Amino acid sequence: MKRNILICDDEKNIRNGLAMAMELEGYDTLTAEDGTMAWSLLNKKDVDLVITDLRMPKLSGEELLKKISSAYPRLPVIILTGHGTIETAVEAMRSGAIDFFTKPVDLDRLSLVVKKSLSTGDLYAEHEQLKKEVEQLRTRNRYDRIVGKSQKMVNLMDIVTQVAPTKASVLITGESGVGKELVADAIHELSGRSKGPFIKVHCAALSESLLESELFGHEKGSFTGAVSQKKGRFELADGGTIFLDEIGEIDAATQVKLLRVLQEKQFERVGGEKPLSVDVRVVCATNRDLLKEIEKGNFREDLFYRLNVVHLEVPPLRERKDDIPLLMTSFLTFFNQENGKQIEGFSTSARRALLSYDWPGNIRELRNCIESAVVLSRSPIIEAEDLPPAVTKAENTAQLSLEVGITLEEAEKQLIISTLAMCAGNKTKAAELLGIGRKTLHRKLQDYKIDQE
């Protein structure tokens, strides 16, 4: 889609010369001989950027800028000025202009400023579109804390929705940081037990001696330090759901007692003799391979099959990269609010780095990365240098090998082909990376017959 640039100057030669230069770069142009005419065109046509002189009859550039800043605050404005009015141009920058140029205009620098400004506008528009998409997903889904539109996540949430209303035990597996606890939350929230308690136990955080007492409670005097009776997590979860995270970490004795709860819905407190009955739905999670743990003798096979009535595998982030832009946007919105920032999106290089990285720490790592970038960023756009070195290093490993002895033309052709491939065929992004105009790229594609290939 071509972009519209409005050029406003009372000198016809300057106005037409700038219009010709912008059209050679692939833009459409509108021209106005004074501020009044420019304002009229702005209210009738779609304009993506304005280049205006300061000194003009009827309506000056300063007044035009004020009107634009008030009515169209995101419309970029570039100011043109003579050498005698540079102070006024600096004041215009304070009023919202993105840059100013003294006459005669340096067309190469103007072209770069225009390209960068329109690119920033595109990034903001893309961020706003992604925000709408995130909200639409959350409105459409019954559980709105899981963000994802990839087929793997759609399939997972379909099964969660189907399983949640039942009483079946669920085993959630997946790598660390993929969001297993959120899936457990969704199962509880979408079940008939959502009004009941949802008790979470992180088994790996408790020693063997404490875990049994935490799960099943204890009687007064049952061990040193048991100064009063204590209800366990199963008792507290009666009528609701208990989530046992890192279930592969529990010791053999606790496994036996847990198996009895699942089979008979009964248990005794530590040091107690009276059986207690509970109605609890059990959801477990682990990043271990429990079948291998069974082979090693670390986990009971009968307990595994009791827990694994329904098995949900949460995919790692590297297998659902379609969801990364939505997650980036969701986290950016959240951390903007948390930190009182107004960051509007991600630069092309930052986005490319985030999409290239494999995220061994999964969503937890991505979340921490975006929080760090929001805190460290000094501009309205998150740049690649705001990201952790591990993330940008992955993006920078893309390389092109050229055989010594080939012609410059062949080297250029291979570079264009590789850049297009990296940009998934997006010619606008490829041209930006190559540092040339889109029109120049099209010409080179024709010269080298790349489109035909």
Please outline what is shown here.
This protein is α/β, with parallel strands linked by helices. The chain has helices spanning 12-24, 35-42, 61-71, 86-94, 107-140, 151-163, 180-189, 208-216, 233-236, 252-264, 290-295, 301-307, 324-339, 348-356, 362-376, 389-395, 408-422, 427-434, 438-447, and strands spanning 4-8, 28-32, 49-53, 77-81, 99-102, 170-173, 198-202, 241-245, 266-267, 276-277, 281-286, 310-313, 345-346, 381-382.
The CATH architecture of the largest domain is 3-Layer(aba) Sandwich
- CATH level-1 class of the largest domain: Alpha Beta
How much beta, percentage-wise?
5-15%
Intertermini distance: 24 Å
**Major β-sheet profile:** 5 strands, parallel
User: Pairing-aware structural class of the strands and helices?
Assistant: alpha/beta
Helix content: 40-55%
The number of helices is: 19
Query: Largest sheet, order of strands side by side?
Result: 2-1-3-4-5
Give the total of beta strands: 14
Explain this structure to me?
It is a single chain. With 453 residues, the protein is an alpha/beta fold. It has 4 domains: 4-105, Rossmann fold, CATH 3.40.50; 151-314, Rossmann fold, CATH 3.40.50; 318-394, Helicase, Ruva Protein, domain 3 (Orthogonal Bundle); 408-447, Homeodomain-like (Arc Repressor Mutant, subunit A). 48% of the residues lie in helices and 12% in strands. The protein is built from 19 helices and 14 strands. The protein has helices at residues 12-24, 35-42, 61-71, 86-94, 107-140, 151-163, 180-189, 208-216, 233-236, 252-264, 290-295, 301-307, 324-339, 348-356, 362-376, 389-395, 408-422, 427-434, 438-447; strands at 4-8, 28-32, 49-53, 77-81, 99-102, 170-173, 198-202, 241-245, 266-267, 276-277, 281-286, 310-313, 345-346, 381-382. The strands form 4 sheets. Strands 2-1-3-4-5 form a 5-stranded parallel beta sheet, with helices on both faces. A 5-stranded parallel beta sheet has the order 7-8-11-6-12. A two-stranded antiparallel sheet has the order 9-10. Helix 4 links the parallel strand 4 (77-81) and strand 5. The two termini are 24 Å apart. The mean pLDDT is 88.
